[in-house]
Amino acid sequence: MKYTEMTLAERQGAYAAEKARFEELKSLGLKLNMARGKPGTEQLDIVMDIFSVLPTNADYISSGIDSRNYGELSGIPEAKVLFADILGCKPSQVFVGGNASLQLMYDAISKAYTHGLKRSVRKWSEEPVVKWLCPAPGYDRHFKVSETFGMELITIPMTAEGPDMDAVEEWIQDPAVKGMWNVPKYSNPQGIVYSDAVIERIAAMKPAAPDFMLMWDNAYCIHEFASDFVPFPDIISLCEKFGNDHMCYEFASTSKVTFPGAGVGVMAASEENIAYFTKLMSIQTIGFDKINQLRHVRYLKDKETTLALMKRHAEILRPKFEAVLHGLDTEIAPLGIASWERPVGGYFVSLDGMEGTAKRTLALCAEAGVTMTGAGATFPYGVDPADRNIRIAPTLPPVEELKQAVDVLCTCLKLATLEKLGV
Amino acid sequence: MKYTEMTLAERQGAYAAEKARFEELKSLGLKLNMARGKPGTEQLDIVMDIFSVLPTNADYISSGIDSRNYGELSGIPEAKVLFADILGCKPSQVFVGGNASLQLMYDAISKAYTHGLKRSVRKWSEEPVVKWLCPAPGYDRHFKVSETFGMELITIPMTAEGPDMDAVEEWIQDPAVKGMWNVPKYSNPQGIVYSDAVIERIAAMKPAAPDFMLMWDNAYCIHEFASDFVPFPDIISLCEKFGNDHMCYEFASTSKVTFPGAGVGVMAASEENIAYFTKLMSIQTIGFDKINQLRHVRYLKDKETTLALMKRHAEILRPKFEAVLHGLDTEIAPLGIASWERPVGGYFVSLDGMEGTAKRTLALCAEAGVTMTGAGATFPYGVDPADRNIRIAPTLPPVEELKQAVDVLCTCLKLATLEKLGV
Question: Is pTM beyond 0.90 here?
Answer without folding.
Answer: yes
